Structure formats: C-alpha cells, structure tokens
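Reminder to self: keep the SMILES exactly as supplied, no canonicalising. Ligand is zinc ion.
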Amino acid sequence: MTEAADRVFTNGTVRTLTGERAGAVAVRDGTVVRVGRASEVEFLVGVETDVVDLGGRVLLPGFVDAHTHLPMVGRYARHADLRDAADPECCIARLADAADAREAWILGFGYDESAWDGQYLTREDLDAVSDERPVAAFREDLHVASLNGVALDRLDLPADDVRADDGEPTGVVVEDAVRAVFSAVEPDPAGTRDLLLAGQERALELGITGVHDMVARPAVARAYRDLDRTGDLDLRVRLNYQRELLDAVETAGLATDHGSDRVRVGAIKAFADGSIGGRTAKLDEPYADAEPGDEGSADTTGRWDTDPEALAAFADRIDGQFQGAVHAIGDAAIVAVLDAFGGRDAAARHRIEHAELLTDGLVERLADSGLVVSVQPNFLKWAREGGLYESRLGRERARACDRFRDLLDAGATLAFGSDCMPIDPLFGIQQAVTAPAEGQRLSVTEAVRAYTEGAAYAGFDEDRLGRVEVGKRADFTVLSASPWDADDDAIADIDVAMTVVDGEISADGR
Ligand SMILES: [Zn+2]
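Structure tokens returned for the bound complex:
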C-alpha cells in the first residue's frame, strides 16, 4: 500500500517549470512525492493528510533570491524606512515615529535626496528629531549618512569624511565616516537575530523560500546558525562571506556547501569595483557626467576596489576550495573578473555579481566562461528614459546595460536576485519582462526560471530546488493570479498567497 502524503496542494495551476502542467502536488517529509492532475494525486490523501485547496491559484517552485542582504531588509522593517520619503519633513516625521525608547539610537535607512531639492539631510533636520538622543539617517547607497548634533559629538569620525561649512560640521558624512557610523550602530547578538527574523518575515511575505545572503559580519552567520538550531529559520540560506572573512572561514574548516539542510556555506565574495550611481564602477571610457561641484571628476573612469592583479591572486587562492562571487559592474571590471576566473574548472561555478555594462564581446565571453551570471532585474529601473544609466553613461552605454536576452541567447546561466533594491521577485520579473530595450525582454517563463532554477544552480541546489518535481524539496510560491496571464505592467501587483518551505506553509496571505 502506498503511504499517505503529509500535505496535498490541489485544485490549482501548478507551473512545474519541467514543461509539464499539473493541478496538484503531494508532499511527504518535506519532499515532493507526486505531481499531476488532482485525480492522479488524490489517492495519496489519507486520514492524517492536510489537504490545501488552492482554489485555482498558481503554484510555482519557490523563489530564490540569489543576491540579498537580509539584515538590511530587517533594518527597513525595524527602523525608519526613508526610501520613498518625498522631502526632509517626511524623513523627520518617520524618524520621530520610529524612535524606540528601548534603544540608544534613532535610525533611518534609504533616503534619496533626488526626490526633493538634491540636498542631503542636515544636522539641523535631524536635531528636529531629537536633541537628546543620537540620530543617524543613511542614504540609499550607504555612501552618505546624515547625523544630528548628539551623534556628531558622540562619535570620533575621520575628519576628511565629515563635511563642514565654515568649520562647522553640516551633519553630512561620507565613505569611511559612514562605515564608522554603521559599525557604531551595529546591533548586539540579540539585535542581529531580531533583524534577521524581521528580514525573514518580509522575504516570506514576498514568496521567497531561499536567499543567498552576502555576509559582511561573522555575527550574522552566527545568528543564522542559531536560528537554524532553535528551529526558527523558515528560509533556506546560503552564506556568501565577504572576502575579509576568508581566513576565519578557512580556519574554521568550512568549504562551499558545508552546512545543514537550511544553512550552507556559499561563496567568498570580493568587490572588483563600486557602483554606477556613485561613479565608482570601473569603466573603459570616462563617465558621461561629472560630479556636481567636483571638476576633477569630469573624466573619471571609476575606481578599482580589488585591482586585476589582486583579483587573479584571489581566484588562485580560493579556486578548488570555495566558489568565488565577484561584484563587477563596469565593463573594465567585468574584463578583470573574466581574466581572473574565466577558463577555470566550470564545476566551481564561480559567480560574477551584477555584470551591468556589457559589450557584445563581453556577452560572448561571459557565456563561454562557465561563470554564473548573477544579475538584478530590479536595476532595469535605472535603464528607463532619462534614468541613472543614461545620465552617468550616456545613451549608447545605457542601452548596453543589463542585457539579459543577449546573455541567455549566448548560452549564459542567469541567476536573478534583488540586492534589496527592493527585495521583491515579482517586481524583478516585471522589470525583466518589460525591459526598456525591447530586444532585451525576457518571457515570463525565462524570468521566473532565473529566479528559481537559475538561482538554485548558482547555489549548487538544482538537485533539490528550482522545479516542482518528484524528489525535489517542497519549496513553493503560491500566487493569487498567474503572471503568464497578467498584463506585463501588473505582474508586480500580484499577491503572494502562500510561501511553502519543506512542505510547511511559512507565510499565508490567503
Ligand atoms: Zn549587494
């Protein structure tokens, strides 16, 4: 006699991504044991089986976000979220609302002064939030922060990166000073756990069943493992450790893929360059625009974070033991990553992160290199008419950014992620399907694949994740409507009805 299923999802549309359509899925011990028409799955319903009526909803393999920063997602949830604030007054109001009396600092994240007159938040603005407690508001890109008077007095910041007017600090700090503020407000272990729980809750609401988190602090890796141990981790997590942690990871005897069912070691992450927004992505030709008030930067081509020689040394050091993941945005940086990592054993699945500005030659080289191309469809929001890409790079190079169709056609493996801008797979899928360059648009199936199977492949997980198939883990995203039937411009508006990890319903928005 066949053993009954633990749970059966039935009466829906199951998009398996195997090429077959189905209406029902049966799960036992967290694994898919049958996929088929409702009538073909029903015989696995026993007295103890939980039968979930999908009511015509659409069940997909669970979304895997291949590039994220979950503590940041938690910060937006726990502190003031300034991302869509329309003016400084709105920032001040949100900071005042978010002030939690149990904490020393009042914090806000994600402000973008281009929404108002282009002036960063000032000490005066933030003194209006509190003149007793320290207040810090971080700009979206984390390269700029604003502080109130109490915070300026309290912190000992590198003077070069503290902006002043007539010798008086304006409250605006940049680069190294931002990093110093960020470390000063880093939470303790309980706070780190709380940020991850808040980030996890948000991810599950958005239909995400797994994340590849870019880990900059050992405390975060520790907190993930603690959550796993106490049974509080509902997501699957791959930890991509920042290169500064390589010695510690190696000393601890870890290697790529070590870990538990839920938490595994992923890649070691390095940065080749910076960002297009910050004019620090490393380009072959200079930026099209100069930084306002900074004549000297008019012909800048960006800067190296890790130069080509050091990248090659990094590749030699980790190859054979760890997967590498290298952030490279400008065309010159992408060449350097290909030179360092191309031609190595494809089994290592080294990854390039972002790969934004591409020539035809680079598209071909990426496809031939065997590197996993970990890209963020969200970034297409900068490719729109008059957007960031056009102002920084000029029209021609703006069109050469985020060439997902060309990459797929050339045979590259795409893994989609959000980089938290914002975290939201359906938003990303909509961006990929509606890319401003018509020739670069993906079909819904291709975009969903990159956010499921492609991301699973980037994490050596294609044997257990990425499709709804017998033998795979029962990680599903259930949508209230089909992105295949929706208007392309309305995909991001589809509600996530359920998020299922190992057959357990982790978020239920029915
Ligand atoms: Zn990132």
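Points to follow up:
The mean pLDDT is 94.
The pocket of zinc ion is lined by residues 67, 69, 214, 419 (CB under 6 Å).
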